[in-house]
Amino acid sequence: MISTNLTRIRAEIEAACQRVGRDPASVRLVVVSKTRTVEEIREVVAGGEMLFGENRVQEAQGKIPLVNHPAVQWHLIGPLQRNKVKIAVEMFQMIHSLDSLELAEEVSKRALLVRPMPVLLQVNVGREPQKTGIMAEEAVGLVRKLALLPGIILQGLMTIPPMTDRAEEARPWFRSLARLKEEILAEQIDGIGMQELSMGMSHDYAVAVEEGATLVRIGSAVFG
């Protein structure tokens, strides 16, 4: 089943790219493996996908060594507490959920002892009080400060938009994140890249791809 699901997802990503004139190679699938077993993850690896997203440091800490595959990469896509930063920078190849200067400073400090850490700035596009992420109007000012931190490499933006009944209803949120990316690029801040947009999940990833997503975080559509 997982192999069949992966084939379908790849086809839908390719179709979405074709609709808007994008290269399908510009989109990467992040398989959300939270709560999934090592056996399920290995089945995904056998199906050709090597990039996984975990929500919690503690869960990933017990899982990653058991998967133990040299080609597999791990991204942290859930909230990161400052007391878990040391572990996170050792385990993950990217952090999607940077949401404050204080967290960025801690990641920078810890990453300097390991390797520079690629990060994404999480934006609360729907201004939902129950969700983490900065407000869009705070982004440029924060990015200027992040550019001065030596241990992190800001590579783009991430969002989790408000839940919608129809995928199409998420389009304005994805479009607003893509627009924010362009606004940041227009500032020409030294050392800042905006090549990544992490947006779109199992129910709306095709729309996200049409609006510029480069990383789509898909769990249930993979595992069923």
Would you write up a description of this structure?
This protein has 224 residues and is α/β, with parallel strands linked by helices. The chain has helices at 2-20, 38-46, 57-67, 85-91, 101-111, 139-146, 171-186, 205-210, 220-223, and strands at 28-32, 51-54, 73-76, 94-98, 117-122, 152-158, 196-198, 215-218. Strands 7-6-5-4-3-2-1-8 form an eight-stranded parallel β-sheet. The protein is globular, with a radius of gyration of 17 Å. The protein starts with a helix and ends with a helix.
Q: Specify the CATH homologous superfamily.
A: Alanine racemase
- What name does the CATH topology carry? TIM Barrel
Number of helices: 9
Unreliable sequence segments: none
Number of domains: 1
The separation of the N and C termini measures 8 Å
Largest sheet: 8 strands, parallel
Strand content: 15-25%
Order of helices and strands: HEHEHEHEHEHEHEHEH
Strand order of the largest sheet: 7-6-5-4-3-2-1-8
Overall pLDDT, averaged? 97
Radius of gyration: 17 Å
CATH class: Alpha Beta
Annotation, overall tally of beta strands? 8
Class per helix and strand makeup: alpha/beta
Architecture in CATH? Alpha-Beta Barrel
Shape: globular
How helical, in percent, are the residues? Answer: 40-55%
Assembly state: single chain
